[in-house]
Structure of VTT domain-containing protein:
Amino acid sequence: MTSLIKLMSLMAIFFASTFLVVNGLGWLSIESIERWLTAAESVSALVVAAIVISLLFLDLFIAVPTLSIMMLGGYFAGPYIGALAAFIGTFLAGVVGYGLSYFFGDRLLNVVIKDNARQQDLRQKFREHGVLMILLSRALPILPEVTACMAGISHMKFLTFVLSWVTVTLPYTLIAAYAGSISSLDNPKPAILTAVLLTSFFWCGWLLLNRYGFRKTVSSER
């Protein structure tokens, strides 16, 4: 379990560093994204959708404020197109992250954890808890990408990964896009409440997993 937490922590630090660098340079700030979507709205809702899809797919490589982007997509493109765009972008990011990690993740694993027995143990531990970790990964912006990559590295069955990913992604994107569609600059309350409730819900789930799932596994290893 220690090896699993170590690798996930290193991946989280990498994604967090990309977020800090990009935001420090002002390239993908909320203000910039909002300006792009405002300009795109004057052209077509499909252009807005294309930008939302691209940004959420980019989240696989550079951490972006996914929930805010989903809500902005709902605000500028409406709940249906916004939700569809958010789902497609997030789904693509997850599947590509899984695929890249499945085929090339061993290189990272060999650098971080050189012992073969510990590598196999890490894969086994993630397969045991991976579905729940994916389902609760929306507790933090960085966790979804980390769990998608971990699913690939651990060689979780692709169908298991996709079903888990879709189970959490579909309702999450629908709720976020709808909240954005009924919000406005004069009334941002729906978006704010949704962000707080969603984050709190997944955080509670993650804390329960940490308390009753991870600790139970660690205790059984002693």
